[in-house]
Amino acid sequence: MTENKDLEAEIHPLKNEEVRTQDSNEAPDKPKETKSKKLTKFGQLSQWRTAAFFLVLFLCLIVVFAFSFIIPCPVRPSSQRAWIRTFENAVTYPFLTLWDANKDKVADVMFVFKDSNNTNNGSCVYEEGLSIPCAHLTLLSGTNGSLLWKRAIAEDIQHVQCGVQNLSGTKSSGCLVIGIPHYLTAISSSGETLWRLNTSLAADLSVIGPALVLPDLDGDEIGDLLLFFVPDDQGTSVNKLIFLLISGKSGDPIGQKVYHNITKGLMPSSPLIHITNTGAYYILFIQGNVQGVALKDIYAQATGLPLLTSKLNPILKKSDPEWEKKTDTMSGMVEVYRSKTTKYLQQVQVPGKKAGKLLISTNDAVELLDGQSLQTYWYHNLSQIQGVPLPGYFNMDGVFDFLIEDLIEKDKKKVTIVDGKSGKILWEEELIYRENCPKPSSVNTISRSIFLFWGELPTQSNVSLLESFSEKSHNLYMVHPSHPNVILELKNSTENVVASTTALFEQSRHAGSVLLLGQPLGSKPGLLKIIKQKLKDLIYLSRVRRLKKGHDDFGDDELREYFHRMRYSS
Description:
Blueprint: H1 2-11, H2 17-26, H3 32-70, E1 82-99, E2 108-115, H4 118-126, E3 135-140, E4 147-153, E5 157-164, E6 174-179, E7 183-187, E8 193-196, E9 205-214, E10 224-231, E11 239-246, E12 258-262, E13 269-275, E14 281-287, E15 289-294, H5 295-303, H6 314-317, H7 321-326, E16 334-337, E17 342-350, E18 353-362, E19 365-370, E20 376-381, E21 390-392, E22 401-409, E23 412-418, E24 425-432, E25 441-444, E26 449-455, H8 460-464, E27 474-479, E28 486-493, E29 497-506, E30 510-517, E31 526-534, H9 535-540, E32 543-546, H10 556-564
């Protein structure tokens, strides 16, 4: 009993004197030597604990020091503010896309061109087995414009889709190259061939539109593809639309081809995947009207498997009673939108709703539909639409607004930004119209978007000389909703601009503009140039154009400085 009390006193050394006196009185005959030995033993234990604590602390400091100073941190690539790359004796396709292929967190620049250099054409035959001349899919580093890789592809290409994740089971993303009549090749981020479509599968067929990237259908944990074909022979009274499911891992078909009757003379276009609020997958496309077919029906016809089989992917078992009521029992098609002049079909994502919204553009109107009920939100009249409406944020309601280019006269177009909620006009301006004008683009800032578009603002001189004006002038303009009465003229070029894009090269850091200048297909070969410039530099050197006098009290330098300080967001 006495020994236990003495040990407790050592464990709790801050006990008051009353308790200590009581413990001493209870054991008056305890030898002092025994107590001293116990104190010494516990003191040694305490010293060991202290030494172990400082040893651990010392080791932690060494590790921190090593990671901070000795082991070097990954070197972040230094993205040049501007660079230019040239190719001689070349013609180029109107195709330009950004894709971070080498995983350095800076977008790289991809384009396609043909040249008359015999040494380059040798790769067509020896590397890819293609006839001469062929095209070259080319990737330039976004940091400095250096050539990452170049490879031969089919001459008559239609689409190049990059950034397809987990293609063929690779951990990085890849590209799909689609050409006429039935060319499909999957390419890795390093430019190597992953697989090719067996041409015998699509004999006497021509592929149309981009491939649709689907969820995994065949159970190999890799997303699959859907291709659209039409017969080469267009002389029959009724044309056929052919669906072909392709394995994203191997390029092999999943089941057989699926045939659907379509109206003669109207080529299908703009296919996309649409998910209803119940999770049912539908494939939508334009064929005069906007039509749709259930993905589960395509899969069932292709494979012959009943829809209740246990091996069927869960997404194919989901149905939507509301959409099934709209399905024609004879054709299996859903009529989503009725119009003989539909040109563009776009999806608009809405948080919390799988179906979202559908933006449908005809020759003379743009209409926004509810993606589930197909009811109209708003309708906007046009004269003649020019290109796909561009989404962006003009006001601060968190809903996509749309920039629309409308040809109102032979040599004049109107650029209009329409409110995504109501369809009302938020901003508009008339410009001189040039044929083959590059597409507009947008870049998100912290709360809204910068809109960029091509044309030429009318002045007294160019209006009077328009008929005799032979030299084409391509001007790149920028507008931001914070100063809607001001346009910045970022670029003024008399060279032929085949394609352009403005986007974030680095997330939330570096917005840049890329121009593809040169000779288009069908022209005499010439000099091809790819120019990349930082958007802030273009703003700093821009020309301020005021749309209305007396509506802005800021000077030109103040406005340039304001736009120069803007921060971008992904």
